[in-house]
Amino acid sequence: MATHDPELRKELDATLQTRKELGPEYESELVERFLEKLDTSVDQRVRRQFAQQQMQVARGAQPPRPRSEPGNGYGERFGFATVSLVLAIPLSAIGAAHADLIGMLVSWAGIVGVNALHTSGLFGWAAPGKRKREADGWD
Known about the structure:
Elements: H1 6-22, H2 27-58, H3 74-120, H4 130-135
Helix pairs in contact: 1-2
């Protein structure tokens, strides 16, 4: 219980006290009753958070996006950088084979330039969540 709900804490204490008084033969029923109350509490909390998010959307504010959602910063940048570095190997080889050191430097300048533009967000498709917000009518 990350938020330490005082009602659930009281309920757990009552359940444990009841188990001490009644003995282990009633343990499964007591645990089931406590789990039902826990489910109800979690369900209420989730509904409350969902209602808050709906109110934010209705007022025009964007709901917080989960970190695992695509286009949300670090993961996308890391993936883009990883792919560009993997592609840098054959691009460097091709540049060096055709124009020696200058060809390799030009290919690396292109790689660095694309990564810098991607990080800055100047590409329309690279702005985190821009396409999704536009599709939803938020922008």
